[in-house]
Structure formats: C-alpha cells, structure tokens
Design brief:
By secondary structure, this protein is an alpha+beta fold. It contains seven helices and five strands, in the order αααααββααβββ. The strands form two sheets. It has a three-stranded antiparallel beta sheet, with no helix packed on it. Strands 1-2 form a two-stranded antiparallel ribbon. Strand 4 and strand 5 form a beta hairpin. The chain is flat and about 110 Å long.
C-alpha cells in the first residue's frame, strides 16, 4: 500500500499541534486527509505516528552531569577547584587540572575530613568545562563581587538620616550659647531622612 507523502503528514502534524488532545477538530483533519488519498483514518493515524520527528541538536539532559548522582559529581568538581585554589601562589601560578585530579584521586583533607574521588571518572577537559559552567575558575574567584544595595524588608522598618552643614549661609540672628557647651557661630543645616524600602526622601 503506498504511503501518504511526508510533506502532507508534516503539514497534518503541524495543524494538529495547535489543537487540544480531545478536540473534535483533530478527527476532522485526519478524515479530510484520508478522503483525499483514499485511505482509512486508522491508516493516516498509523503513518502519522510512524513519521520521524525532529532530532535534538543537544543532549536531553544538557546542563546536568551524566553521572547518576549529580550531587557527588559536583562535589568532585569542587574538590578539584579547591585544590587548584589552595596551590595558588603570589605569581598567580597554581597546580594544573590534571595534577589536581590525580591528587584528588589519592585523597585530600578538606574541612577536617579525608575525601577522594573515584579514579577514571573525571578528565581534564570535562573538569575544566564544568568548572567554567559552575563559576569555579580562578578568574571568577578573583573577580570582585558586585555591590548590592541594602533594602529594608518593608516600609518604615529602617530610616537613614543625614545632616549636611551649609557653608554658604550663617544664622546671624543666633549666637552660640556657652552654657549649653556651644562654640562658634551657628550654621544652617539640612536634615534628610530616607526610607530604606520605598526610598521616600524627606528634607527639612
């Protein structure tokens, strides 16, 4: 039995993709295709199911380790990165990735306990790639952290007060009071209060 052309099946699948699974319009599209090519609806549905779909250009688990326990795999990457960081000297030189992996396979003391990684699991290229993905390279470590502006959790929870003395204006009508511990001539001051959540500014 001749098959329905692939271009027709591709167009049919594209039209069905815009409909719900239980939409009655789906059967209408299938019946229309079956009538045009003198086939039954079951034949159209079977050939549509056998039509190969688009292939992925990347792995289905892209961004995740192939090792079954990803938490342990990330821990091994952290161990190699910690060894390279611990061997960093003042000239910026450190142990190579291959030697750090070999040292981690023999076992090292980290955070007061002895740990090691299984031999043959990590390669230099894979370890370098994952350290770059997780941001564990020395370039990321030496980069200064971005400044994070403080913000109160809610309004009126924290206020910032600032007093600015004006050098251009003197209060001539007032004089210093020695009995109050004052000295010199009074100056005009500007009081500013800012809410650390809403950033509402009040000046007086």
């Amino acid at each position: 039995m001749p098959t329905i052309p692939g271009e027709v099946l591709e167009e049919l699948r594209s039209n069905l993709a815009h409909l719900r699974l239980r939409d009655p319009e789906r059967r209408t599209w299938v019946a229309r295709t079956a009538f045009l090519f003198q086939r039954s609806e079951k034949t159209v549905s079977r050939q549509l199911a056998q039509l190969p779909g688009p292939k992925r250009c990347t792995r289905k688990d892209q961004g995740h380790a192939r090792y079954p326990v990803e938490r342990e795999f990330r821990r091994w990457i952290e161990m190699v990165a910690a060894i390279k960081l611990a061997t960093l000297n003042r000239k910026g030189r450190h142990l190579s990735t291959a030697k750090a992996i070999a040292l981690a396979e023999d076992g090292v003391d980290l955070e007061g306990r002895f740990e090691h990684i299984p031999k043959g699991v990590l390669t230099r290229s894979r370890c370098d790639r994952w350290m770059g993905t997780l941001g564990m390279t020395l370039r990321h470590r030496s980069r200064p952290e971005p400044c994070v502006r403080f913000e109160a959790p809610e309004s009126t929870a924290c206020w910032q007060c600032d007093v600015s003395i004006s050098d251009a204006h003197d209060v001539a009508e007032q004089r210093a009071l020695p009995e109050a511990g004052q000295s010199g001539d009074p100056h005009l001051a500007l009081f500013s209060v800012v809410d650390e959540h809403s950033r509402v500014n009040d000046q007086a």
